[in-house]
Specification:
The complex is a heterodimer of chains A (76) and B (582). Chain A is built from two helices and two strands; from the N terminus they run βαβα. Chain A has one domain. With 76 residues, chain A is α+β, with helices and mostly antiparallel strands. Helices cover 29% and strands 16% of the residues of chain A. Chain A is flat. The model of chain A has no long low-confidence stretch (mean pLDDT 90). Chain B has three domains: 139 residues, no CATH class; 187 residues, no CATH class; 203 residues, 3-Layer(aba) Sandwich (Rossmann fold). Chain B has 13 helices and 22 strands. In chain B, strands 15-16-20-17-21-22 form a six-stranded mixed sheet, sandwiched between helices. In chain B, α6 packs across α7 and α10 crosses α11. Classes of the chains: A alpha+beta (76), B alpha+beta (582). At the A-B interface, β1, α1 and α2 of A face α9, β21, α11 and β22 of B. β1 of chain A pairs parallel with β22 of chain B, so a sheet runs across the interface.
Amino acid sequence: MSGASLDAAKVTVPTLLIQGKQDPIASTEAHASFFSELTAGDREWVVVPGGDHAAFLETPRAYFLQALVSFIERPR
Amino acid sequence: MTLASIQFPYLVTSADVTGQHGPGGVTPTHRGLERLGLQLLNGRRDRNENAVRLEREVSLAGDQQAAFLFDVESLDSTLIPLDLRTRAALDQTLYHALRIHRPGRDQTIRSDALMEGRVGLPIHVLDVLSCHRAELVQVEVRILGLQRIEGPMHPRDPLLQEPLPLISLQAHAQPGILQSGANREQIRPMDDLTALNAGHPVDEAGQMAVLVVGSGRDAPQALAHLQNGHAHNVREAGPPDLFLKADAVPEVLDALEGADREVGPHSVRLPEDSVNGTLCRRTCGNGMPESSLPVVPDSYAEAETLVVGADTPVPGVRPCVSRSALSSKGRLVTTSVRLSNTSMFLALAACMLPTTVQSQEPIRRTAEVDGHPVAIWEKAGPNSKGVVMLVHGRTWSGLPDFYLQIPGEDLSLMDGLIEAGYATFAVDLRGYGATPRDETGWLTPERAARDLRVVRNRVWRRTGQGKRPILFGSSYGSMVSQLTVQHWPELVSSVVLFGYPWSARREVPVTEDPEDPPMATNTAEAAASDFIIPGSISQAAIDGYVEAALEADPVRVDWRRLHEWSEPGRGQGDRSHAPDTG
């Protein structure tokens, strides 16, 4: 194992970042920095309106699922 | 303990056949095999041939008797002291699954044993070691693969703390063997099997057995199914003859393959050309070559009942295994095997290995990581087009996070993904949910990532080594997922990070490892704290989540070495601590 620690620049696989708009734990600034530093060209950042830190259990669940499924089914 | 070799057993070994342990030269094993209709094809096999060999040194004090507890999955063993009652119970069992050999004394000691399946740990084998002086015993375990339990080891026996899923063997393999007693009728070949085994004739005289694999709850359904047109003159023959934890079978194979190995020298490779028709012909007399086990084609994935047939027993030739799907409710595998040898066990294992199981509730699987069992919850629908692995957050484990069931509401991410056509596997990291803490009591980022890697490999093997899984991490789980794909990008097809709590600006100072984990009690307030937006989730769902979360995770898991999240010197002046929420 090499290269310990979290480092977006070391992420090379297709990456989907999902952020609940009202998630107090997921900072937009940190997301922007993470997203821009990703090495993976195949990447997407989805903000879920009306969602917090439990968005996939809440009202926007369908929105969440659609974003998730459409990303993983993207032809690649 | 070294795993000297992994080969699969073929027959009882010489000590059984010479009958040195029983009156009249007949051993319990001997009788058990006869009762099962097994032929002792060859009474003298080389000791080192066709056996699973594990070597472990154990210490026994003088004049001590102990039960030898062997866990097939972890390939680990322990000794427990025996009292008279336990010993008496053991003596009433008729079973032989392992042999204990003490090198240097050239003595194979008595090894009546019983096999016990326990939820969460696939198979335990108990054997009795006696010792009259302190000595170091080198133990060699041979798994013969056929298990027979009589007497007190009925699934409802109080000796078993939990009900066992069962394999019920209707032993009609040898006409005449069971002529006494209630089972005079012969089982005739199942129609499906006749078709299935075209080219591999099933003896019309009924020289076959029907093996029903499933949970105890499923077994009656299996029998009913067989009676409803798929077989004639099938009936339950009293207490099942054979017990094995059905869920454990693929895990046994995994363990034998090596828990953290993609492909071992004897691992199971599933040939693509075996998909159609009769799926497998095994002609291996010694060992088990690759490309020898059947795969479950997609068209069978809907099947909840599977039939396995066998061809004629020829010494040195393993049964051919074929399978077909039947429509029936219940998670079952019915097997028709001419019981020529112990490879039946493997045939079953092969059948269950590569398919994801359609089920109403998640099924718990286990990945063994450095001797520690890590739980994985599997739920899938028919014909899954991909696999999604789910990694929970900081406080609550896989099921509360991803499988919340509230009447009248669809909240579960697992179910949502299954509806979209995916098989789902939710891990419980160490200390969470169904996974115990390890001996350190702590979890660390690197530990979690390494565990996730092994879990992924376990899932990948289980799903037929097809497409690489998608890794989904929620909150803290997104950090674990990121660390994992940074280390091993080849493991996944993509990664999805939700509720990502990390900031690259953070730097966590390296501190000394704390000793004792605080093991704080989790609270209802904490469980409800992530639901922030008013009206976005029903009160019933919040209440259900709190209940499920506290039940699954009553104690807060303790993490340390949080500096592993952050590279020293990378932080840009932000000295805030690594997040400990999420």
